[in-house]
Structure formats: structure tokens, C-alpha cells
Amino acid sequence: MKEHRAGLDGTLSAFTEELFAQLPRADQRRWARSYLQGLLATPGKKSVRRLAASVSSSPTASQSLQQFVNASPWDWEPTRRQLIRVAERHGWARAWVIETAVLPKRGDHSCGVHRRFVPSVGRTVNCQLGIGAFLSSESGDLPVDWRLLLPEQWGDDTRLCERARVPESARSLPLWAHVIDLVENLAAHTSFPAVPVVTDVSDYPEGVCLLDQLSRLGRDFVVSVPLDLPVLPAHSRPSGARRDATDAQGALDVRRFLQWHGTRHPYAVTFTTPGRQQQQVRVVSGLVRLPGSRHTYRVFAEQPSEGDRPLRVWITSLVDRDIEHLTALARMHSGTVSTLRSLEADYGLLDFEGRSFPGWHHHMTLVSAAYAYSRLFSTPGQSPQLDVYRRTSDLYHV
Hints:
Blueprint: H1 2-19, H2 26-41, H3 48-55, H4 61-71, H5 77-88, E1 95-104, E2 114-118, E3 123-137, E4 140-149, H6 152-155, H7 158-163, H8 175-189, E5 197-200, H9 207-217, E6 221-225, E7 230-233, H10 243-247, E8 252-253, H11 254-261, E9 267-272, E10 278-289, E11 297-303, E12 313-316, H12 323-346, H13 357-376, H14 384-392
Parallel strand pairs: 1-5, 5-6
Antiparallel strand pairs: 1-3, 2-3, 3-4, 6-12, 7-8, 7-10, 9-10, 10-11, 11-12
InterPro entries: IS701-like, IS701-like_DDE_dom
Pfam families: DDE_5
Protein name: Transposase IS701-like DDE domain-containing protein
């Protein structure tokens, strides 16, 4: 049992050294490893005090961990880039899924905290809003990058931002701009060809801006949009100088478009549920363009039973892909939502204790690293990469 524990400790040390190699001091790398170990081993709430107690008997461990996360000026971006490389060694992502995380908070001093109506819970909550980038495949989702949305009141208050150490470049960017930033960062640091971007902005007034920017970047996408997004049937494309005037007329929301212009005979798509059961859904689809645009897109939606309104409508640039492929990409979003719930329940996503912008990013980076380690390396005998880390662990002494 002790040999098994020593093997895991050596693996975690090697993993930490690879991810945090840019940290100049051995004590920083040691506290990074301790924080990861605490996130992996501490049950329940992952407060700094409880993390420290689970990894050290020193009375100053809690203070040192707090210092490392909140005050130490280390750059989280190199660690996240390395996390992308580690994740890609285990396989080729089928999609880049971007998902929002509502992080409830008490009080109004945490960086970016604000009151927001959350449709999933049906009420307004005091929270931070994180936007995460996940490398997603059939085997799971790995979070590799994060952004923190700052509401207008934060962007307008220079003193508040300075106190929370918020850089000028991060102040009051809209949600769609954070999504684009995450996509561009992934594209810059991935070693594989770009894959479709999958995200859900159906609860945010971000649809048109996001679709326009993704199209400008030449990025393929599958995006869930609000049901009232205005669209035009693709075949009604106007020409010449009359395009803008015509676009102002005849647009209808995407839900009505599918009801009136969608496929007469819905596609039957069979997929496997997480419980390994076969399930069939009906999918309606059609080609559209957005008012003021010449791009043609495909919209599609699952309809569980006859006459039901679609619960979620997707729009995609992949107009020539078959419906089975598009439906599978859209369903990857559900897997990412499940991963997010696991990050909240088991890896301390909601448990950051601090008020600063760098502290928040430090914590989210460490949470992502802990989850990646748990998925990729913590079960002996299941991953060949685990043996690589074990063989190299004697090189690292943290």
C-alpha cells in the first residue's frame, strides 16, 4: 500500500513539475503540488484551510497556500498552454466546447461579482460568471482555459479594478468577446488542426455577434442560439443594393423558421446514452442566413415527440455535414455540462477564497490541472502515460 501511495505521489510530482516548470522557485512548485493534492484528496468544501490540513501538519501551511494562490505573482498562461499539450498527448479533441460557469458568491467584494438572472435555477443570484474552454472527445472533456466576465459596473470603476488587480485588457468585455478570445488562444497553442467550436448562448443576447465573429475568423461552429434569433430562409437571398432593405423584411425567429420551413420528414437519429442505451430522436433542419449577411448556415433541433417545440436550436457553419454528425457535436455540450458539475462538486470550482483577478485565475488553473490529473493519471494500470510519469518521477524532487 505504501509503495502504491509512493507511486501516485511520484506521478503527481512529475505532473506538477511539467505543468508548473515556468515557476522560478522550488517552493512555488511545491505549493502548487500541495494545492493539487489537496483538491484531489479533500472531501467536501475545498477551503484553503481544509486543503492545507489534508496535506500538511504545519500550522503555517494554510497561510502559505493562501499566499501562493492569491498574492504570488505567477503567470497562469504558460501552465494552461502546457495543460493543452498534456491533454493532446492523450488524443485528438473532436470539439472545442465553450461553457459558462455560474459561481455563487456572498457579499460584493469578490472580483467580478454581480447579480444575474440564471435561467437554469429560475432566479437572480449573486455570482461570478466564468467562461471555460474544454477539449472534448468521446472519452470526456478537459478544461484547459478560463475567462472571468466583468459586468459594466466593474469596468466603469477604475478604483475597484485596481484593488482587484484587474488588467485593462480584461475589463467589461462582452461574453462573445471572451468566447472569441478563448477560441483564438486554443488555435494559437494547439498542435492539432482546428476542430468545430461548440457552445450554448441561448440564454444570452450574444448570438449574432458571436456567429459573425466566428465566421470572420473562418472557424466552424455549432452554436445553440436564442429561439427568437431572426433568420431568413437561405433561398430568399437578395442581390445588389437592395440586400439591406430586403433583409429588414421577412425575417422570422429561428423557432418559427423550423416550424414552417424545416424538413417535412424529420431525420431519425440514433445515439447511445451515458447508460449505454440506444435512443432515437427526431431532428428537423433547414438552411438559413442571418439578416445583413450572405453566409448560409444550417439550423437544426431535436424534437422529442410529435408537436413538441424544440428545447434548443443549433446553428452551424457545417452545412454539408450529415445530421447525425451535427447532432453528435451538439450533444457534446451536454457532456461538458456534466464535467462542469463534477468540477463544482468534487474539485473545488466554487470554493475560491479571495478577491483578486489573478487569484481567481490561479485557482481555476489549479482546479483544471487537478481534474486533468484525476482523469489521465490517477488510476494505476489504465493509462500508458501513467507509466511514463512513473519512470520519470525520480527526476523530480519537490
